[in-house]
Amino acid sequence: MTSSRLLRYATFLSAFDYEVVFKDGESNVNADCFSRAPVNQRSSSGDISINDEVQDVCMNSINQISTEILNSDSIRKETVADVELMDIKAKIETDPELALEYTLDNGILFKGQRVIVPKILRNAVLQELHRTHIGISKMKQLARRYVYWKGIDNDIEHLSRSCEPCAKMKSSPPKAQVHPWDEPQNNWDRIHIDYAGPFQGFWFLIVMDSKSRWAEIKICRTAPTSTSTIEMLLEIFSVHGYPYVMVSNNASIFVSDQFKTFCSAKGIFQKLIAPGHPATNGLAERNVYTLKSRLKAMSEDPAPMQSKIREILFRYRMTPLANNSTPAENYLGRKVRCELDALRPLKHSKNLVYDFHARQLSVGDRVQARYFQRNSNLWKFGSVVRKLGRLHYLIRLDEQPNGVVKRHINQLRRTDVNRKSVTFNDNVEAPDNHPPTTPQGRLYEDVEFYPTHHQPQRNPDNGDNSSLQNQPVVSNQPLQPELRRSGRVRSAPNYLRDYVTS
């Protein structure tokens, strides 16, 4: 009864805004035992009024769950037949602590404001709570307002999980914490592969190295098959070697018997992700998105697809990652040069000092240089005009005074043969229809002329010497007349492509 009285007090005082003030016993002399418990009660006391309100609260709880089967009469009747509840009713009168927890009103047990439901009616109460399939959390919240029995939360969970309509409409479970892949020990130990496409009329095979983030992309115009995929992978593996582990999704290309046989024959352990969970192969999936976004941004570029992929790969490999190192540095162990490196001055590496023995030539030395023309190796005369390093020289050939060629010391040999030259007097003319000849009788057409900078002046006072000065001065080598060429623009022949011309 103590619990009922406290409940009545709490219900009655809930309508007021009050402040509790402690007052010691010596000062509390306003009330006494007789005034609190009069012999004759002429009017209804506050306790009676509070009892009525508490009874209304309890009846309201019962009415909220009342159906044709569930009502106050059925609960009262089944409470009497329930051994567990009758045991609690018997202990309330003798156990003060239990009396504070439970309340008995009109033969119905309450725990706070919640009706303690007999065991035989619990299934009906659960069905009432689950009528609109509101879910476990909402069922528990509703039950905590009206009904109680030991283990009610477990019963609600079991009912909701065993309901087929609820199971079909149940939301996905919370995602587990992301578990990263174990980092491989070496580069190319584990690779992730995936296909992107069809996109802009192409399919793209993307291969990613798990450790260095090095990327390889192969293009195919037709829908890929296991055979074409194997051929593209073999092309990549010819450069990088075979990996230990290859991660892929469950596409038919990767799960075919042909592809499995290929992996087994090459000693590659194939790991397939769970179907419908692409996050497991997130390294390849992320680069599929990156490739598509780059190609979409370059859609107005008229360059062919192969050029776009090559440019995308080059920029990706030279761009720093989150660890401030590029994929090229991680994989190749060195920095890859790009156009931006041209902004820095070029640093020439110093050659190591060591004993070096080789023939040396000086500028102006006469040499014979190896000359390549129409699959024939010739030796032509010329002069050294510049030395390049230790073993290379620029040579101006006598037959090509306007150009130079680059030759190795092994393609040069020193000579004392002088350069062919000839000068003519202005008044001397060659006979008609007969080309001039040398004293040895050779035709001048095989000799190249070099004009002199100073023409000899005639001096009549010198006698016969003047006539000798005006005569052509012929060297001991065969001479050639000056060639007459047309004024049209002509390009250099193909066999001079490797020469340095001025």
UniProtKB/TrEMBL annotation:
Residues 457-479 have a biased composition (Polar residues). Residues 180-335 form the Integrase catalytic domain. Pfam families: Integrase_H2C2, rve. Residues 452-502 are annotated as: Disordered. Its EC number is 2.7.7.49. PROSITE patterns: INTEGRASE. This is RNA-directed DNA polymerase. It comes from Nesidiocoris tenuis.
